[in-house]
Amino acid sequence: MILSLKVxxxxxxxxxxxxxxxISAFGEFxxxxxxxxxxxxxxxxxxxxxxxxxxxxxxxxxxxxxPVDRPVCEHCGKPMxxxxxxxxxxxxxxPICRQQTEPGYDRALAVGTYEGILKExxxxxxxxxxxxxxxxxxxxxxxFSESDLDLQNYxxxxxxxxxxxxxxxxxxxxxxxxxxxxxxxxxxxxxxHLLFRNRPTLPQTHMTLKxxxxxxxxxxxxxxxxxxxxxxxxxxxxxxxxGSTLAECARTLKxxxxxxVDALVLCTTRLDxxxxx
Length: 277
Ligand SMILES: [Zn+2]
Ligand SMILES: [Zn+2]
Hints:
9 helices, about 35% helix, binds zinc ion, alpha/beta, two-stranded antiparallel sheet
């Protein structure tokens, strides 16, 4: 399915492309200077990285990331881990989505699975504050969007918000950085802050599906309801596990009459790894 973004017509961001191009040329110069004076080494194989946009992984290691195998669940975008034959179900829905009782997002897609080099990159970004990675990973979201989504169909990119206490501790919101980098890569208007996390939620790693849903229930509010009614939005997040958080964000937007809410994530946990330790 090709989805396509109708940017608000009164966008105040006209003319930002020229500025973005000159910033990009300056960025390339800085990147070359950084390679000469402060060489980087791949965190995985220790090879020196020369003129590669990713300052933490060499191209050879990066190329080992696992894209999402098709077929995928038609709702959450997780790889189904099956072969499609004549005996395959007509409607491809994973066990998680078959249990879905309340509507959330319309459709989610992921660039890769949460394992190997992609998992390592997310952990470096999130827990070791390697925020330079966000630009590279955001560009991967942009590459993926070019083939599988039409971003012109959405009114705004909507990163999943962190609670202000968590954001203060971490110093940044990785979903926000990814959404900013995606927007920058495609010359898209800066990301709007439409969602707000109104209470802290517990870590969900060891929770069941039901516990995860309850944990995030009512955790989000809308910043500007007028901008939401009748609009289409693309949620952006780093990792999807069961999709409970993304679904709750979507429900919040839809309660304020959003017409369509999809989600794009950098990586998704495989179904067979969902509740394993
Ligand atoms: Zn390497
Ligand atoms: Zn699914």
